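In this section we walk through a basic example: taking a raw amino acid sequence and producing a predicted 3D structure, encoded as discrete structure tokens. The instruction is simple. Fold the sequence below.
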Amino acid sequence: MANSKPFGRAFDIDAGVTRLARLPALAWWQSALIGLVCAAVMLAVRQTLSMIYGDIPGFMILLPGVIVASLAAGRIAGLTAVFASLVGGWLMLDVALFGQAVVDQLARVTTINFIIVGLFAAIVAAALRKIVKRLDASVVELKASENRATETETQLHAMVDQAAAGIARVGLDGRVVSGNARFAQIIGRTPETLVGVKTSDVTHPEDIAPTQEALQAALAGGEGHVEKRYIRPDGTVVWAVTSLRALEAASGEVIGFVAVLVDITAAKCAEAALRESESRFRDIADTAPVLIWVTQQDRTRAFVNQAYVAYHGGSYEDARTGDWRDMIHPEDQELILQQSIEGEATGRPFAMEARYRRADGVYRWLRSFSRPRLSSGGEVIGFVGVAFDITEARRAEDDLKRINELLEDRVNQALAEKARAEADLMHAQRMEAIGRLTGGVAHDFNNLLTVVIGALDIILRSPNDAAKRQKLGEAALAAARRGEGLTHQLLAFSRRQTLRPQPVDLNAHIQEGEPLLKRAVGEAVELRLRLRRGGAPVNVDVAQFEAALLNLVVNARHAVKDGGRIGIQTQSCEVHTGDVVDLPAGQYVCVTVSDNGSGMDAEVMARVFEPFFTTKSVGKGTGLGLSQVYGFARQSGGAARVRSRPGRGTQIKLYLPPLPDGVTVPEPEVAARPASVSNRRLLLVEDDVSVAAVALELLQETGFEVRTAETAPRALELLAGETFDVMLSDIVMPGGMTGIELAQKVAHDYPAMRVVLTSGYAGDDVDAALKEAPWPFLRKPYSGEELARILGGSDDTTQT
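The resulting token sequence is shown next.
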């Protein structure tokens, strides 16, 4: 082993004694043999020195043998050497005395001392052997631990020095204690001159305060982050993201910080270059006399130039976020939208021509060219578009065509024919709308009359049944009131409505109807109420006001997108002469419904209150909602006014006369709801609950056991599980199957069951089908006698 002295010079591990102690452990007989050898050697030495000792017992000279045996082989060897030396010594003593066994007092004392000292030396030497071996093992383990620690520290230093990020330890005074090569490179120092540098001296002055905030965050037990600039000795600036953590001693005391730096100078330079490039592009685009825009992947505009803003009107954000489709001429809209979608789908450049409305309301012809923008991966992430005004060229082209193709009189004739065709088309559309309206009204009225006539018929035949009379009387009254409301709405469309005004507080009715209004607009749109303090008392028809308010809110919901806002406000308004058309000057209560939706242009606003006029697609609206609002306001002694701009939302204000002084608003009455009826071998298929309730009573009066179904699919479910003799079915029903289709399936699947059809208004197509149908038909409204007669007759009963 090398000459290492981990315990100081007082204990030399290379000494002979410790070398003996390091001998390996032996078997007991080997240890005993070594003890005998050591005793024999020492006896030989004693014998050699016998001339000096004479007849003096010299046992103590044998002790080195005992010690050597104990150190070399352990306690067994030492004890063996003690007893062997004792025996050999007595034998030598006898020989030395010429065979005479002379044991005097000195011999006994010497023997006892040898035994005591020998045993003690053997035990101590054996213990020393164990101690040396244990110390040897500890030294070996300590050396291995030192080697491992040195190797780990070397690897850690290598990793830190090779890290891409700068890593440094900073003291509480802000000076660098140590750091890797990357940290030295970032702040412009060498590893040799790094220690002692004060971080505040290399930090940009504007970034010192944010750095202090990050240090405080680290001292609070978290991790501080700061994006800062470092100034190198040569004056260059390096941007870095710095993360700081507090460094604690074993006692928990903060002794400094560990800083990790990531150089982001390249990213900052690229960002600055990009901003400069965008600025140059904006300068070039804004000075161009053509419309320029840049779209994103979701088709929204990321940039428009000043020519585009001037053409669109409003602010830059209005032009950028406005819907360009609203600017397209109605005659060109469908074609342009189709070309736009198809062109973008190809991912290649494409061109279009159409008329677009300028900010002054004039339509101009624009020719646009769009080129795709590609990502680094080659994917289309938007388009860059340019548009030129070609109105004059188009006009010249049109003039040339007219000169070459037609004479002036033929042009006039063609235009007149076109006008007549448009007038005929509008007339046909009006007639079709009136036909749809008339058919729907007839259907609703006949349903209501069925309830009224049937209920009254039962009441007359049940004079003693007070409960039944009460229930059916309430049903008839409710149906009659529904008919009354329908009549009022029709009269409002024709401006001939007879209203039933009464003193009301509009605020109370708006608050009461707020849940319904919120359901109408949905959760994606915010509904705000701003109601006048002290109430808004007026003299109006409550039902018509609620219908008008609901129409305005629903119209506003159609105009806004998800995340939009709709507001309802009541206030006192002073109107001067000429402010509102056909409205006398004075004080009015105003109800305003506003939205931040798409808005309307002047052309739409001019026709917004016309009956049957709608901007919605076919089947999405009848054009009667705002007409009812206008009719209600005019007949109530007020007026309606609309304000709107494309992309800026719409505001519709109702002017209603205030309640005269001294007139109070009564407490609202709560109307009782009629009870529902159901029960008994006839299947009644009727979707109208009120009609079904009255029909059920009439059928039960005739003795039928009635089961009810609201739709044809539900009726088929009941037929599959139960047996019926007769089925009485309405023709017009929800659920995807008409009463005639249901009758055809029932006649095929259940030929033994009679079928009777009924309807208030089924439409021309259904009426034609009924002429060929083999089933009896009962027209609504019907009485109990008519119902009993047709259900009791044969299959060929004449249609009623």
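Looking at the output, two observations stand out. The first helix runs from residue 16 to 21. The CA atoms of residues 528 and 781 lie 44 Å apart. In the next section we compare this with other chains.
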